[in-house]
Amino acid sequence: MMRTVRLICFLLIHLQVHGQLSHVQLQSSYITAGAYSQHFRDAFSFVANPACLGEIQNFRSGVLTERKWMLKELDNVEITSCFPVRSGGLGLALQHSGDADYKEQCLALAYGLNAGKLQIGTEFSYLLDQAIGYGVKSFGEARAGICFHVSEKLTAGWVLELPVFGIAGKTNPERGPQFFNMGLGYEWSPDLFMSIQIEKESGLPVDIT
Cα(17)–Cα(62) distance, rounded to whole angstroms? Predict the structure, then answer.
C-alpha cells in the first residue's frame, strides 16, 4: 500500500501537464462582422481584420463596456479609434478586462492599405496578463489580414496571427497561441447583412460565428 502511495506522489511531483497559459485577447463576436462589410463597418471592425482599414474614409471612435452574466470578473472595456491616411487607414485599440484577481490589458496598433478590390492590413499588439500573487506576463503578437471584394455584395477575407515574443510557464514553456480567422460577408441590401466567420486558435476547437 505504501509503495502505491509513494508511486502516486512521485507521479504528481514529476508529471508534466500541458495547459493553455496564454490566449488571444478577448473579442466580442457581435462587433467583428463589420470587417467584411461596406455599410456595416464601424470603429471596432479592424479588431477582427486590420485590412478593412484600407477603405476607411473618416474618423471613427468607439467605447465598448460590458459585464457578461453580471459577473465583475468578466468586465471588459475597450476603446478604439481609426482614421484615414494616405491610401489607407490607421487604427488604435486599448482594452482592459478582468478584475483585481486576474486582469488583462492590451494595446494594438493597426494599418490597412487599399489596393482596389483587395485590402491588405497588419496589426501589432502588446498584451499584459497579471494574476494576483504572480508576476506580470507580457506577450507580443503580430497579425496580417486581407479583404477581397469578390463582387459588389460579397466580401471575403482571412487573418493570421502569430506570437512575436513572450513565454509563460516554467515546466512547459509556452509562447502565445497562433490564430486563424476566415470570414465571408454578404450585403443583401444596405439594411441587411449576413456573415459567417470560422476561427481557429491553437489548442482550442474550431469556433463558428
Answer: 41
Angle at 27 between CA 21 and CA 32, to 5 degrees: 145
Cα 109 from chain centre: 12
C-alpha 45/C-alpha 32 separation (Å) is 5
Q: How confident is the model at residue 84 (pLDDT cuts 50, 70, 90)?
A: very high
Q: Find where cell 476607411 sits.
A: 56
Q: What is the pLDDT of residues 19-34, one digit of tens each?
A: 444 555 556 666 677 8
Question: Residues, the chain, total?
Answer: 209
Pairing mode, strands 167-168 and 174-175 = antiparallel
**Ramachandran quadrant class, 17 (left: phi over 0; alpha: psi -120 to 50; beta: rest):** beta
Cell of 133: 500573487
